[in-house]
Design goal:
heterodimer; A: 736 residues; mainly alpha; Rossmann fold; 3 domains; elongated; B: mainly alpha; 1 helix; rod-shaped
Chain lengths: 736, 41
């Protein structure tokens, strides 16, 4: 690429690290571009609003250290949304050395609107013309040289998903700071009237408010004052009726009315449209694209919501069928060979009996019971990542818009809620994409009703024990229950705590894309690793503490007489009307307050003695164990393959076939009925958010108030729904 | 149960509480799911 034809150059900035801000419209591929450049794993998704705060990545090119700052996607630099304010404050106050403006080549005109605003900042800009391959596929011909000449900046065509153009982009970035070659972009003219006012304002600012010149880029400040930007006016302490303003923009107001912000927006849109006409040649005959064909069905007003629920059902069915054989395999490996190895190692080190018990019946039984579900979690995260990357999630928000309106929200609120299917914690943070504080609080209150991955181990345990023939459907029903209750609670909140009008929903629908294998692998891992970290930290810690609570007073014979047993017995009557009024279930629910997976871990510890079964004959050797693990893994792979390709009657986790294997599942099958099991799952779905979600509430809203509201309403809701399920089921003679 | 057992139990229980304190309280607001650096600003 040639160097920019633009204006003036100035000396190289003496900074050890070159600070490069990566800005652009939502879903233009900023995070993907940074991941491709720096090898990082920032969360990306084929839907707008994935990046809600600025993030950094570091790399080195030709000996130059570069810090890439990923700014939230924005359509403009106006001060109306959280993303715009974060991006703008960074660009104006932190002054990066260079801005890489990621422009979606398939949507040039809209993206150039932001580009024009970036050029106003007086910071060197390099345009990454991203998604260039799709633009070519559409038959678009973009004259890159003409674009460079018009904007006065370097333009580099890129395809971030395939790492195409990355080296050229880095060359342009480092080249821009090479001595004498760094240059500012050319100022774009918004017309004689506006430019005259800008000139007068700039001169006036230098003359009357010299301190402001140090704080803001001159032209940008003049434009913002002219637009009446309330943040800049407040920061700069210049009143809208200041004599300077009167002198400079008085005639503009007379000619165009008071709304100079709209005048500026029109000027930028006109310029962006003009530039697009200059550099872009569209095909004369426009084909109906695949995205449009799919959207005609997927966004149909009658079919949209049924298709969304069908897609969810398919995801749960596939998750279950694909992962269940591997969960069984892991269960066998953890409770068989791994337990034997740890027991043997502790004995070899002459560890006391209680330590052997702590390791096998505490740590292995507790953490192991949860780790068994790692394949299920990863399978679920894989499908969620696929839906995100494909562009379907944005459609899901769109089709849910009407339902969301009924509770005073709009479809954009559904995006954090969908994120909640992975983990409620990042979903609560994602509410910051919503402009209105009322929408933020209401959405955050509803997020814990979205069934996160942590509840999955509980469902899989009970579904495997009672509903193996309808596994996908039962699992799906729990997720749908969460969504339906979120809608109902939203309506209730709208009529009580959050009265007000629901705003309009304008959301960009990205084109459908096939996510790359690498992207799927990275983001599935990023989501799933959260689960592994939890297993290695607080699930491990709670398992150890639960073991002590089950064995204190020291040497207690019956676990019911232990401290945990006594607490569980004391509160068990509360759960009796729900069908699980035993101390084992109550104790597990108490421990599950830390994290929902711990419900399963605690059950594993409580029931471990009952599931204990000494093998007959001599114990297998280490190598026999290894061979067995390998063989059973291969069988699990075959079973998963058969499940996935099978079209009828898939049943996994066949509890009845494994009855002899005294697993946790078989003990649970004896302690609950199908009806009480479903009531228990509903309770786990709905009862209070976990401790980390509580911290997220406090962190995001700066108060415990909203967590308090969530705690109270969810506990009442969980008890009521479980009561209705159990007592209603009994009344109608279902599954008792 | 000897003194070694008590010391060992103390260490294990103390370690478990520290792990809980570190992962739930000290890093409150820590968010594994947000990005690779695990922080939400």
């Amino acid at each position: 690429m040639t160097a920019p034809t633009a204006a003036r150059s100035f000396p190289v900035v003496e900074t050890a690290v070159l600070r490069v801000a990566v800005a652009g419209n939502p879903n233009s591929g900023k995070s993907t571009l940074i991941n491709s450049l720096a090898g990082t794993r920032l969360h990306v998704g084929n839907w707008p609003g994935v990046t809600v705060e600025k993030k950094e990545a570091a790399l080195e090119h030709r000996g130059q250290r570069i810090a890439l700052i990923d700014l939230p996607g924005t359509y403009s630099l106006s001060p109306y949304t959280e993303e715009e304010i974060i991006a703008r404050d960074f660009l104006v106050h932190d002054r990066p050395d260079i801005i890489v403006d990621v422009v979606d080549a398939t949507n040039l005109e809209r993206n150039l609107y932001l580009t024009l605003q970036l050029l106003e900042l007086g910071i060197p800009v390099i345009v990454a013309l991203n998604i260039y391959d799709e633009a070519e596929k559409k038959g678009y011909k973009i004259d890159v040289k003409a674009m460079e000449a018009a904007l006065g900046v370097t333009v580099v065509p890129t395809v971030a998903t395939r790492k195409t153009g990355m080296n050229d982009l880095l060359e342009a970035v480092t080249g821009a700071i090479a001595k004498g070659s760094r240059s500012l972009p050319r100022s774009q003219s918004y017309g004689e009237d506006i430019e005259a006012a800008v000139k007068m304002l700039t001169a006036g600012i230098v003359d009357r408010h010299p301190a402001l010149v140090e704080r803001y880029p001159r032209r940008w400040l003049a434009l913002k004052l002219m637009e009446g930007d309330r943040r800049v006016l407040a920061e700069a302490n210049i009143s809208g009726v200041d004599s300077l303003m009167k002198d400079a923009v008085g005639h503009l107001r007379e000619a165009h009315g008071e709304d100079l912000e709209s005048l500026m927006a029109d000027a930028r849109y006109s310029l962006a449209a003009g530039l697009t006409r200059e550099v872009l040649q569209r095909p004369s005959v426009r084909k109906t694209e695949m995205t449009e064909k799919i959207d005609r069905v997927v966004l149909n007003r009658f079919l949209g919501i049924p298709i969304f629920f069908a897609a969810m059902w398919f995801v749960f069915k596939m998750t279950f069928d694909l992962s269940a054989p591997f969960a069984d395999w892991l269960d066998g490996a953890i409770n068989g060979p791994l337990t034997r190895w740890i027991e043997a190692s502790t004995n070899l080190l002459h560890g006391p009996d209680w330590l052997v018990s702590l390791m096998t019946k505490g740590v292995i039984a507790g953490v192991g019971s949860v780790l068994v579900f790692v394949p299920v979690i990863f399978a679920m995260m894989f499908f969620i990542t696929f839906l995100e990357g494909s562009g379907y999630m944005a459609r899901a928000a769109f089709v849910m818009d009407r339902a969301m309106h009924s509770m005073g929200l709009h479809g954009k609120s559904f995006i954090p809620m969908i994120l909640g299917f992975g983990c409620n914690v990042p979903a609560i943070y994602a509410t910051r994409t919503l402009e209105n504080p009322r929408d933020k609080a209401l959405t955050a209150l509803l997020i814990p009703l979205m069934s996160c991955g942590a509840r999955l181990p509980v469902y899989i345990l009970f579904v495997g024990a009672f509903f193996s023939a309808q596994s996908g459907t039962v699992l799906w029903s729990l997720y749908v229950m969460g969504i339906v209750l979120a809608v109902l609670m939203g309506i209730l909140f709208k009529r009580t705590l959050f009265r007000g009008e629901s705003p309009m929903f304008i959301m960009e629908l990205p084109p459908y894309r096939m996510p790359s294998g690498r992207s799927l692998a990275i983001h599935t891992w990023e989501k799933g690793k959260h689960f592994l970290i939890k297993a290695g930290t607080y699930i491990l810690a709670v398992s150890v503490l639960v073991w002590f609570l089950l064995n204190l007073p020291w040497g207690v014979e019956n676990k019911k007489d232990s401290y945990l047993g006594k607490v569980g017995s004391a509160i068990a009557p509360v759960f009796a009307p729900l069908g699980f009024g035993n101390w084992e279930a109550s104790s597990s629910l108490i421990a599950g307050v830390i994290a929902k997976e711990i419900v399963v871990g605690t059950m594993g510890e409580i029931y471990v003695r009952e599931t204990e079964k000494k093998p007959e004959g001599p114990a297998p050797t280490f190598f026999e164990d290894l061979r067995e693990i390998g063989t059973s893994f291969a069988s699990a792979g075959r079973e998963a393959f058969t499940n996935v390709i099978s079209t009828v009657g898939i049943t996994s986790l066949k509890a009845e076939e494994k009855e002899e294997e005294a697993t946790l599942r078989s003990v649970v099958a004896k302690s609950f009925t199908p009806l009480s099991a479903y009531a228990f799952m509903a309770f786990v779905l709905l009862y209070m958010p976990c401790v980390v979600a509580a911290a997220a509430f406090k962190h995001e809203f700066g108060t415990w108030k909203w967590f308090g509201v969530a705690f109270v309403y969810q506990t009442i809701l969980a008890w009521s729904v479980a009561f209705i399920v159990y007592q209603g089921g009994k009344l109608f003679g279902i599954g008792g | 149960m000897g003194i070694v057992d008590f010391v060992l139990i103390g260490l294990i229980v103390g370690g478990a509480f520290y792990l809980l304190y570190r992962s739930l309280w000290k890093k409150k607001g820590y968010c594994h799911g947000c990005d690779s650096a695990g922080k939400c600003k």
